[in-house]
Design brief:
With 484 residues, this protein is an alpha/beta fold. It is built from 17 helices and 22 strands. Helix content is 36%, strand content 21%. The longest helix has 16 residues, at 308-323. It is globular, with a radius of gyration of 25 Å.
């Protein structure tokens, strides 16, 4: 906690969440909010969140042992653990012996602790004078967030989403880091079902909203790409007519969302009709360059990040800088200071002269297509080899989406295709059906791919490794680096 971060009173918590004080000293003041008993510190309020793997209600004792001054729990938990001692006490006040071990322990209760966590973050957001830019899209959210933060950092004190704290837990934890010194917050919003971005926007209350693109992703929760469009469009609902939407004019579905939006729109893209446009210049092993233009100004930007996708991410960040009044030179300086994130188009050269592209952070059909395009632009006369793990959360579209990846790899002239996972056969079927020699296709485990690929690759080859996060395709990268 920094010196200018605000503390929390019991009144703050109850007002923000609509909760109630079960027992304890109502004059207590909390230093910070915690949801993990392992990192709870003296003076914290511990909020018990029921997650997929663990339920915070099982760790209340540990939180108090670490110095928490109070806990916020679900009403259902209270009714189970604190049955009223008599009918007249059911309205609150006197309880049978329950998990309260010390008379001074402070307990508050709400119907839903996850919602309460967001309500607390929204309360903190309303208390601050910070301006907020919220970023969503199928691909490029995190890189765009990082680029936007370094652009705004040229003139402002910026808070940004750490890592991928972009969901209903991560976003509130980010906002709890707000201090009086912050002028802008750059927040990433993710979703895997309808309504999530609406709720995240409700919490963040953004002034600017960025949509990077709309591609097939999280289809399991939203059914089809139009469902993705509607889900991403929830950000624009949260902006209202007073907000500004920063939108990718080169994306057809983003343009459809722009037509519905009643506020200010700033467009970005490679097309010259964009308000903030970029003309790609070159793609090398060390980065990408493009000419950034707005009004009658233009400047060459040399990114340390690879791929056409990086240029779009940079244009989105540039459009934010443009909207808030930064000079084109300030934007250039910010963009050129941005560095690639781990697992995102990271290039290394192995001792045998093999070029390895680690793009294992995640995968969906759109990001795979961009990664293959980047590989083709880099390899020159070298052989391109593609290693692919499953793309998750595609629902009923999974088989066809993986088959299409096989077709794409064939059309891109890949010299080898290595697939692992539940949908590896679909990838192979697509590749073979498009004309790839079956001897160039291998299906196996990550370990088998590493072993076979070491024997089939040599100097000058370019190997691209990609897959969804759950596939842990970085293990292939690590395996290829061992004893090379």
């Amino acid at each position: 906690m920094t010196s200018d971060q605000k503390t929390w009173t019991v009144s703050d918590v109850l007002h923000a969440t609509g909760g109630r004080l079960v027992c304890g000293n109502g004059a207590t003041r909390f230093q910070a909010i915690s949801i993990d008993s392992r990192t709870t510190r003296a003076g914290d309020l511990f909020v018990a969140i029921a997650g997929q793997k663990h339920d915070g209600h099982n760790f209340l004792g540990e939180a108090f042992d670490r110095g928490a001054l109070g806990v916020l729990v679900a009403e259902d938990y209270i009714s189970e653990q604190f049955p009223p001692a008599s009918p007249e006490s059911a309205s609150g006040g006197r309880w049978r012996a329950g998990p309260v071990r010390k008379q001074e322990e402070l307990w508050m209760a709400v119907p839903d602790t996850l919602k309460a966590l967001g309500d607390l973050a929204a309360f903190r957001r309303r208390q601050s004078n910070v301006s907020v830019v919220a970023i969503t899209g199928t691909n490029g959210k995190t890189t765009t967030k990082e680029m936007t933060a370094v652009v705004l950092d040229q003139a402002f004190n910026v808070l940004k989403t750490p890592g991928n704290f972009n969901n209903l837990i991560g976003l509130p934890l980010t906002l709890f880091g707000l201090s009086d010194s912050h002028e802008w917050a750059v927040l990433e919003l993710a979703m895997n079902r309808p309504g999530e971005i609406r709720r995240l926007a409700e919490i963040a209350n953004p002034d600017l909203g960025v949509i990077t693109n709309i591609e097939p992703g999280h289809l399991e929760g939203v059914k089809d790409i139009d469902g993705v469009m509607e889900a991403k469009g929830e950000l624009l609902e949260g902006l209202g007519q007073d907000g500004t939407a920063v939108l990718n004019i080169d994306d057809q579905r983003v343009c459809r969302l722009a037509e519905r939006f009643g506020g200010r729109v700033v467009t970005f893209g490679i097309r010259s009709s964009a308000e903030v446009s970029g003309t790609p210049v070159s793609q090398t092993r060390t980065g990408s360059s493009f000419d950034l233009s707005w009004y009658d100004e233009s400047v060459r930007v040399c990114l340390k990040i690879l791929g056409k996708g990086a240029i779009y991410n940079a244009l989105a960040a540039a459009a934010v800088g443009y909207r808030v009044g930064l000079s084109i030179e300030e934007v250039k300086k910010g963009l050129e200071s941005a560095v690639s994130l781990p697992g995102r188009m990271e290039i290394s050269t192995l001792p045998r002269g093999i070029h390895l592209i680690n793009d294992t952070y995640n995968a969906n059909p759109g990001s795979v297509a961009v990664a293959i395009e980047t590989l083709c632009s880099l390899k020159g006369r070298g052989r391109g080899i593609f290693v692919i793990g499953d793309m998750m959360e595609l629902g009923q579209h999974a088989q066809d989406a993986h088959r299409q990846i096989g077709i794409l790899a064939t059309r891109a002239g890949m010299a080898g295709l290595y697939a692992t996972g539940e949908f590896a056969n679909a990838v192979a079927k697509g590749a073979a059906g498009a004309g790839m020699d079956r001897r160039k296709i291998f299906i196996g485990t990550r370990e088998q791919i590493v072993e076979v690929l070491k024997g089939r690759s040599g100097p000058g080859d370019w190997i691209l490794v990609k897959g969804s996060r759950l596939m842990a395709m970085e293990k292939v990268v690590e395996g290829l680096r061992i004893d090379d």
